[in-house]
Amino acid sequence: MTTLKRVQQWATFARIWHVFDASWQNPFDSAQLLKKYLLGLYKPIYHPMNDCGDHVIVINCSDVALPGEEWKKRVYFHHTGYPGGASWTLAHELHKKDPVLILKKAVYNSMDGNLQRRYTMERLHLFPDANVPAKLMGNVSNQIRQIRPIPKRLDHYTQKEIEEYPKLIDYPKDYILR
Amino acid sequence: MQSISKINLLNLPNIFLRTISFSSKLQLKEVFETREGNSLVIKGVHAESGREPFLLKNVSEACPVCSSGLDIKHTDVLILSQFVRSDGCMLPRRITGLCTKQQKRMSTLVTMAQKAGLMPNLNPPNSKNDPKKRGGWKKYHKYFDETTINVR
Ligand SMILES: [Zn+2]
Q1: Does A156 touch chain B (CB under 8 A)?
Q2: Which of A65, A94, A146, B145 is least surrounded, with the fewest CB atoms within 10 Å of its CB?
């Protein structure tokens, strides 16, 4: 085996570490994207019996964005197993309790329920902010592109940028500024 | 270009003060009110909007938004902020000069941008100006789908 082939072999079967910034991303769309990397679905050597999934580090999980009023409409159900043990938690209540859980449940539910699912979830590393241990961050060799662009707030533009932006309308002459 | 009226407050009803003007009313104005002891000074100063050099040329019959041909999203705060007052209140159609469809669409987009916390500096003075300080579910990031806007 030549050196090239040996390195190629090693690179093919090594687990790659990816990083994903979840700020302003829909957790359910992100789950469909992350699932591809966690299961190794994008690899030419993929097979359900082939353990070729990658590691994914997700940062800024507390900054995920839900569409419209879904923070108060989406409900998470849990049952303790005892009579009267059912509970319903709204998405914003769950997010307040643990800012990582919404994304974790989204990824977990996006995958098929088989014996591998728990082990695949072990390869998903979720962090509420950007403070990732250096030991984990040192492994990262790829960044996953975000789905939605991060919107920029009006007060984060400079006054010059706002003034010199092309204007669609001007005030009529008898308008009183306020 | 200034109209200054100085009247004794004790003699005149308050409503009457507003109607006094020595210059043409048909000019873009900024109104200043200052109180000096017993007298109230109201100044209507002609102001430049500063928009003329950056105004897009509209040669067509259509309204400014229709003729621009832009697909405006609720995240385009630099465009949407042109249609609101400094307190975040939508300007009426009489002032924006848009057609009814676009006026409705723009006001919905402004509401979306405000709910998503993208224009926190255009708010009433009693506002906390920080979306993170909102209560309950309102403080978390949210986005909107523009295809849900129902404009006939
Ligand atoms: Zn129009």
Answers
A1: no
A2: B145
